[in-house]
Write a structure and sequence with these properties.
GO terms for molecular function: protein tyrosine phosphatase activity. It is a single chain. By secondary structure, the chain is an alpha+beta fold. It has a domain at about 50-165: Protein-Tyrosine Phosphatase, Chain A. Helix content is about 40%, strand content about 25%. It has five helices and four strands; from the N terminus they run E-E-E-E-H-H-H-H-H. The chain has helices spanning about 65-70, 85-105, 110-120, 130-145, 155-170, and strands at about 1-5, 10-20, 25-35, 35-50. A four-stranded antiparallel β-sheet has the order 1-2-3-4. It is elongated and about 65 Å long. It starts with a strand and ends with a helix.
Amino acid sequence: MISQSPVSPLAVDGTNGKLSEELVQRLLHVNKTTDNETVTLPVTHYQFLAWPDHGVPSSTALAPLYLLQYIRQTKKPIVVHCSAGVGRTGSVVAIEYVLESVLFNQRCEDLAEIVRDLRTQRACCVQTESQYFYVHWILLRFYTEHRYIAADDPRLVKFLADYEQATAKRP
């Protein structure tokens, strides 16, 4: 149980549930009390634990794909946010934009164009070069797992090796 913490006139309580080593799901209740009446709004909160600020997840982290799969199943409003709301948030939004295009058989723009468009709506979306390459990496992993791209394609193999080498140098 998450302890109740009043933020006048709101109070939040809920429970934690671990989906994986990288993902936590919290079922929250936001309670607003006015004039002796309490209105409760249920909120499902997902937290991805393994993505450092200004960085990228480890090369084994496919959790953003699983996270997007969970939230894609809901018809309720979705908010995606990291500490500043630009780097990791923009990366997740870019990933979902491309995945939705693929899953719904729609034409998808070049990723650079998608990021440019996101930046017209929110400055600094996909904040670092490594995040930009991570978006490519995770999409290529998705394409490989769903057999859109052959796992032994030499261009893919080279990109993955280059990505591993580049991200191994990060602090």
